Amino acid sequence: MILDAGYPRDIRLEKEIPELIGEGNRVSLLCYRRKGESRFEELDGLNIIRSKRFVSKRLKGLIDIYNALFFINPVLNAELRRIGGTFDIVHVHDLPAANTGLKFAKRWGSVSILDLHENYPEAIKIWFKWRKGILIKLKNSLFFSFTRWHKREERMVRSYDRIVAVVDEMKDRLIAAHNLDENKITVVSNTEKVGDFRRDTRFIERANVITYVGGIGPHRGLQTAILAMPEILKKYPDARLQIVGGGSSDNINFLQELARENLVEASIDFTGPLPFERAKEYMANSSLNIIPHLKNDHTDNTIPHKLFQIMSFGYPLMVSNSSPLMRVVNELNAGIVFEAGSPKSFSSRAIWAFENNESLCKMAINASVQMESGKYSWEYDAARLLQLYASL
Fold first, then answer.
1. Are residues 252 and 347 in the same domain?
2. Collapsing DSSP states into helix, strand and coil, what is residue 89?
3. Which of 102, 112, 201, 368 has the most crowded CB, counting CB atoms within 10 A?
4. Residue 287: CB partners within 8 Å, gap ≥ 6?
5. What angle do CA 245, 5, 303 make, to 5 degrees?
6. Domain total for the chain?
7. What does pLDDT average to in each consecutive run of 10 residues of the chain (392 residues)?
C-alpha cells in the first residue's frame, strides 16, 4: 500500500489492512514520517516503511507542487527506489499518489489497485475557497486546476488494473465520465464494524443543542448551519450550535466572522479537535447531530465515516440532501434531511427535530439495528474487498 500521508490515524486504511492481513496477506505500507516516528515499524502484523525525510506541513506543500507539475511524488518515489524485491499487488490510496505507484507496479509486474476515497478533481475546486494566504491562492490557481486533475484521473483509472470506489455514486460517475467497465470497479464504503460503536439506548432529555463533529472546510456546509441560527433562536433562544473539530485558521476564522456578522456568536461553540470519547459525549447529549455537506460533485461522490458512526450509536441525525447521505438516511429511515445550502430548510428541520426529539431518537435506534445485519456494515464491505483480492 502507498499513502500520501502519515500512518496511523487514517480510518480507511485502519479498516482495510487488518482484513487483508487476516486473510494471510503480507502487507507493507509506504507513507510519510511525522515528527517522533521511526523509519520502520511493525504494527499488528503490518510492515510500515516511512519516508527518510520528516514531512512537515511546509515540505508537504512543496511536495504537492512538484507532484502537480510532474505527477510524481518525489518523497514516495525516492523510497520506492530504495525498496528491494517486488510485490504481487500495489494498492495506492487516492489520486495524488496514483502515478507514482503505477510506475512501480509496472516495473515490478504487480497488479495495480487505485483506491479513490473521493472525487479529488472536484474537491480541489472548493477545499481552498476560504484560504486567504497569497501564496496558497497562487499555488492552487497555478497547479490545482480541475481540468488538469480530471484528465489525470481519466488516465489513471484507465491504466490501473482495478479501482476501489467509496460509494455507488462514485462508481457510476467513473463509468459515465471515463467509459470504464463496471466490473473493473469495486465499491468499499466507509461503514463501521458491528460492535465497534455500541448502540446507546438511553433516552436523554436533551437540551436544544445541535452538534457537528468533523473537519472544518467550505464543503462541510457549516456556513449553512450558522446562517440558520437566527431563525432557530427566534423560537428557541436557548439553542446552541457546537462545532467539534479542527481546520485551518482561515476556515475557522471565516465561520467565526460569519457568526459575528449574524449576531449569533454567543450561541455557537468552537471546541477545536477533541479526543473521540469526548466528542462522543457531545454527540450523545445533543438534540441533533448534523452532517450539513454542500451538494456538489465532490460531496455527491464520497461519504464520511461519521455518518455510520452516528447511526451505529443511534443518535438523532440530520443530513443534507447530498446524494449518498440522503440515500443512506432515507433507506434506513435513520433521520431527517434538509436542502443543502439552504438556511431556511436547515432551520425548519432543526426546529422540527427539537419538537420531535423522542421520535427522532427512535428512528435512529431502529436504523442502528438494521445496520447490524445489512449492507451498511464494515463486515459487508470487507467481504467485497476480500473478494476483489481473491479474484486477482
1. yes
2. strand
3. 368
4. 206, 207, 208, 209, 210, 316, 353, 354, 357
5. 55
6. 2
7. 96 97 97 96 97 93 91 96 90 98 96 97 86 69 84 98 98 97 97 84 77 96 98 97 95 97 98 94 94 97 96 95 98 97 98 94 90 90 97 94
